[in-house]
């Protein structure tokens, strides 16, 4: 599974009618490994 799949399928999923507005996985060096389409730039 890629980090993008994890963001899309696990972090941005609907749980009991609630969901995150945006999500990202970011490395210690600040590099973005994966992000949702709504994550601010």
TrEMBL record:
Pfam families: Profilin. This is Profilin. It is found in: Cytoplasm, Cytoskeleton. GO terms for cellular component: cytoskeleton. PROSITE patterns: PROFILIN. The keyword Cytoplasm applies. The keyword Magnesium does not apply. Keywords: Actin-binding, Cytoplasm, Cytoskeleton. Belongs to the profilin family. It comes from Eucalyptus grandis (Flooded gum). One of its GO terms (molecular function) is actin binding. Its main location: cytoplasm. InterPro entries: PFN (IPR048278), PFN_euk (IPR005455), PFN_sf (IPR036140), Profilin_CS (IPR027310).
